[in-house]
Amino acid sequence: MWFDGCLLNENHREKLSVKRLKTTEEAVKEVKILSEELGLSIVKYNPEVSEATRLRRSERRSRR
After folding, report:
1. What digits encode the pLDDT tens for the residues 4-57?
2. Are the C-beta atoms of residues 5 and 16 closer than 8 Å to each other?
3. What is the CA 56 to chain-centroid distance, rounded?
């Protein structure tokens, strides 16, 4: 398992992986350093899901 440190746009649709680490401890440490150096906040990856995507997923589940 790997943990990626990424830069995200406002709605989390675009992301740029800048660091890949093996443990959560390493990842948290590196992301904190990077956020301080770049002056950016740390956020959890949580993209918005459109209504069309929700409907499509719902249809797929009902076919199973």
Report:
1. 999 999 888 899 999 999 999 999 999 999 999 999 999 988 888 889 999 999
2. no
3. 22
pTM of the model: 0.65
**43-62 pLDDT, tens digit each:** 988 888 889 999 999 998 88
Q: What is the 3-state secondary structure (H, E, C) of 20-60?
A: EECCHHHHHHHHHHHHHHHCCCCCCCCCCCCHHHHHHHHHH
Measured CA to CA in angstroms, residue 27 lies from 4, 19, 61, 63, 64 at distances of 7, 8, 34, 39, 37
